[in-house]
Amino acid sequence: EWSAGKTVKPPDQLELTEAELKEEFTRVLTANNPHAPQNIVRYNFKERAYKPISHIDQTAIHFSLNGNLILKDSDEGRRQSLRSGNASEKAPVETSAEASEGSGVKDEGSTEDTQAAEGAETAKAAEAAEEEEPPPTKEKERKLANQFNFIERSSRTINNPLRERASQSEPTPCKNFSGNANQWVIYDAYIEEVQKMEKSKEKEKPKAQTAKKEEKGKKLTSLESQSDDITKISNAAKIVERMVNQNTFDDIAQDFKYFEDASDEYRDHRGTLLPLWKFQYDKTKRLSVTAISWNPKYKDLFAVGYGSYDFMKQSQGMLVLYTMKNPSFPEYVFSSESGIMCLDIHDDHPHLMAVGFYDGNVAIYNLKKATSQPSYKSSGKSGKHTDPVWQVKWQKDDMDNNLNFFSVSSDGRIVSWTLVKNELVYTDIIKLPAEGTVMQGPEGLQLQTFGCGTSFDFHKKIDYLFLVGTEEGKIYKCSKCYSSQFLDVFEAHHMAVDSISWNPYHLKVFISCSSDWTVKIWDHTIKTPMFVYDLNAAVGDVAWSPYSSTVFAAVTTDGKAHVFDLNINKYEALCNQIVVAKKKNKITHIQFNPMYPIVIIGDERGQIVCLKLSPNLRKMPKEKKGQEVKKGPEVEIAKLEKLLSLVREP
């Protein structure tokens, strides 16, 4: 078969195609030994325990032979070569001595006859030897010594005895003392400390003044002086920027201050909204306006929260504060990892802002601190919400004068947050039930489900009373005193309650709006609404005006703003005006300024528009000859009460 050139195939060989035969298989060879053990343990004398070895030897020995070779260049090799050389030199000297001794013995044994006979021959031989040169003596070949004979010398070192350091140190000196402490002792110690600090400050003052006088002649190059210069420049630059803006938008500033639409006289009580400034920041163009709030102290300053209502496109959030004195750039900018869904500014501390985030956290920002991060923030450990926070509201300080605010979320919890020792401490006030609160789970378990809170508002006078709007369209009248019971339930809307607000004048009236296109005005003692308005689109926000008990404004998702005055027209709005022109853009929020006759409106593109109300939308009672016009809360309450008496069932 071999001679014929045929290839012999084993019987179990696979039948492969040409493509399969040509296919290359690469194998990566690594230096790691697959058979190396991974769990070697050695006794650690220091720790007196068996410890696993982290470094494993990966070498695999295929052949090993214990030999007795020595390197020639090593010290021991040199010594051995010297020894072998000395032995070879001694050998030829010994052999020559033996030969001479043997010849002497033979001479003694020879007879005198032979000496006489051979005397003549030796004489001749001696003469001949003198004439001829002696032949060179041949050196005997050195005998190579065996270089493989050596002794392995091994030695063993003695392990040092282990010593514990604890036994070497001296015991720490201890002293027992006892005493009583109460509030007065602590207070006295505290007062003493304060007095010491004040004395030390007084001592430092004259030193600082003398040092200042010495440094007056020197150049100020320290970092502190540089930072002072920058702050001075920044303040001056801010004033200059505002002046430039007021010059640029001078016509708008004049309109804001003095313009009154004269054509209102011919409009039969209908009014208009005059656009003033537009506020926009480049980094918020892709975010929606999710919250607006005016500052209670500085009437030109307002805060805007940016996030997204599209739950598939959640990204970062921003908190931005604008002033009407500078519409081109914000006064403060804070960025956050999660979208901001709501905010509220404290009435007594206008530098503090409570903020609710999409991820369920709440935080407090402090405008006085020059940091971009919130001063206080909740966390998973401190009881944050599990769903987006839809509204936050500051409340009066508690009994210990700690700041506190409330939040409502889709997880059905209404939580009170108190700032205690620089930490946010939470208390669950109430949990909202859902329809069919008990749900059947696996294996017959009964799971309790909670309603989704979307908005709430606290009563202006009755401290414990508040209203909560839910995703199911219900409005719950609740009390801070009862955590498991509601005072009343209103079947208000067919869809989520987007906003709810008490009237600033009348103690019984509140307003609600919903995605079911309606705005409803309620008396909280009556289960049915007093007024219902259908606005032909989902209503995003509603707000009472601060100057009249009968004026309110609402915004709808079709880009319109609606302003009502119940005192003039109970049936329809006095103003329906498109504020946002672009398609795919919705209005989200509206707020009245507490002092000026203007509103601000936010949309889904991150833009804020400021609009002025025309005279017809803020009509005051006319003065009659010889009579003073009554003004004040009593007049406003009476005006709304008169309207409600017409609607109430006898």
UniProtKB/TrEMBL annotation:
One Pfam family here: WD40
Repeat (WD) residue spans along the chain: 490-523
Localization, UniProt: Cytoplasm, Cytoskeleton, Cilium axoneme
UniProt feature, compositional bias: Polar residues: 168-177
Keywords, sorted A to Z: Cell projection, Cytoplasm, Cytoskeleton, Dynein, Microtubule, Motor protein, Repeat, WD repeat
One Gene Ontology term, aspect cellular component: microtubule
Biased composition (Basic and acidic residues): 135-144, 198-218
A molecular function (GO) term: dynein heavy chain binding
Domain of life, per lineage: Eukaryota
SUPFAM superfamilies according to UniProt: WD40 repeat-like
InterPro entries (alphabetical): Dynein_IC (IPR050687), WD40/YVTN_repeat-like_dom_sf (IPR015943), WD40_repeat_dom_sf (IPR036322), WD40_rpt (IPR001680)
One of the GO BP terms on file: cilium movement
Region entry Disordered, spans: 77-177, 198-225
Biased composition (Low complexity): 116-126
Stated family: Belongs to the dynein intermediate chain family.
Functional summary from the UniProt entry: Part of the dynein complex of respiratory cilia.
Subunit structure of this chain's protein: Consists of at least two heavy chains and a number of intermediate and light chains. Interacts with BICD2. Interacts with CFAP45 and CFAP52. Interacts with CFAP53.
UniProt protein name: Dynein axonemal intermediate chain 1
Organism: Penelope pileata
Taxonomic lineage: Eukaryota, Metazoa, Chordata, Craniata, Vertebrata
